[in-house]
Amino acid sequence: MSEEIDESSDEKLPAVELPKAEWDSAMLNLAQSQFLSAAQKMGLDENIRDRLLFPQRTMIVSFPCRMDEYSEVETVFGYRVQHVLTMGPTKGGIRYHEDVNLGEVAALAMWMTWKCALMHLPFGGAKGGVRVDPRQMSRPELQRLTRRYTMEISSMIGPDKDIPAPDMGTNAQTMAWIMDTYSQQHGYAIPEVVTGKPVVLGGSHGREEATGRGLVYLIRESAEHLGIELNKATAVVQGYGNVGRHAAHFLHELGVSIVGISDVSCGLHNSNGLNLQNVDAWLEQNGTLQGYIEADEINNQELLELECDILAPCALQNQITETNAPYIKCKILAEGANGPTSLEADGMLTERGIFVLPDVLGNAGGVTVSYFEWVQNTQEFSWTLEEVNDRLHKILVNAFHRTLVRSQRDGIDMRTAALIEGISRVAEAKLLRGVFP
What we know:
By secondary structure, the chain is an alpha/beta fold. It contains 15 helices and twelve strands. The chain has helices at about 15-25, 25-40, 45-50, 100-120, 140-155, 170-185, 210-225, 240-255, 275-285, 300-305, 345-350, 360, 365-380, 385-410, 415-435; strands spanning about 55-65, 75-80, 90-95, 125-130, 160-165, 235-240, 255-260, 265-270, 295-300, 310-315, 330-335, 355. β11, α11 and β12 (about 355) form a beta-alpha-beta unit. α2 (about 25-40) crosses α15 (about 415-435). The protein starts with 13 loop residues before the first helix and ends with a helix.
């Protein structure tokens, strides 16, 4: 007979409590709520709904990371999640951030599944992360961290199993370290194990700017649909990182006046339009936007509530909520970040007639060009930048119009339409493959 647990005891059971804490994530709650809402509207089979609510595979690892002070060793937690294995290899980025947990990574993997299905890419969704603050780590520390993390998840990844890519806090250099570490274990170079690598190691032209470029391709389609002239339009970009910076520059090339941007330090506002070349020069010299003299410094709330034609949240999740949704003053909300808008805010924005370009569509340019990179690596062939951008444009515009048609035909918002497009494809594949045994 098993021993009974004395519930009156003060002794904690961390092994029991850990899973609950790890799954307790606002981002996962949002991803699941969006999925359940779409599943109800499309009449999704209950068995498939339940199978898609949580990821198929998860891995939590803890490992030592030696700091530059040789005697100092930190224990680090890492994650890799594969949401759906039905569609082919899984695909998804790796983020380094101090708030990473299992629930967040699972949410990102779920969104990646719908994103890949919406784009008709032969991947299921995956995501990985390590709970560290990369800004506080030296380059040697980041390299040791990355190589050890790669070893910990090496049984889970592979060019035919699961292909990582960059995400928040990681970049092309991180992917180079992962590729090298994985390749060392096999005795030969395997560039197709990751995407988002430097071009010299098999990376694709156009991958670094693909998410921002893709977002602007879709903003252009949205503006045409709404009758907005971009050469007379204004835009605010929250988050002047990789996605936001490229999106701002591409919008500027189309004649859009960028009146607001932000980073972790502050927001900047100039009603006459920011000089992005001067902003970039300031960033190069100072590291943050704070102190830039050709604009007014504002906080994040003020930035999001600026009057503009296009608002592009390209930073963190949960930025537009029921608290500030009534004060959003844009015509197009173009989501470059994952999960920037809460479920409650979604309904409020729709009621106010704001056209929402949802994240599963808006930021799909990155994974699409990652797919191109994987194809080029497996075929040992390289495409030109023009070929990459042309293929990217065709795929994104096709997905946009399929989503728009469904939205108008069924009388639903663009997010729900995009989710139903993706979920339907995954559900069909699951039904065709059946259940084993």
